[in-house]
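Working notes for the structural subgroup meeting. M.R. asked for a predicted model of this chain before we commit to crystallization trials. I am recording the input and output together here so anyone reviewing the notebook later can reproduce the run.

Input as submitted:
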Amino acid sequence: MNYYHLFLGSQKENILDMHRKGRHSNQSGENNNNAKLKKEDIPVIFRLFSRGWSRARIGRKFKVGYAAISYVVSGKTWIEESRRFL
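Returned structure, recorded in token form:
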């Protein structure tokens, strides 16, 4: 094995190096294999929420938990898609 390419660094430095070299995968939104929501669901969620639907009710409609809907409407997840509604 060739260990000469390795260098000592903090976790932050290693993460920056990984991104600089393109050695990361985008696991956000639909790229996450565990995602239950789709990009086209986000505007619908905001529309239902603005019409007074509870987070729990919206969650039941999309078969996700209350927290998943809460994160969407607060802009903590699906950030790019949520930006135009916040």
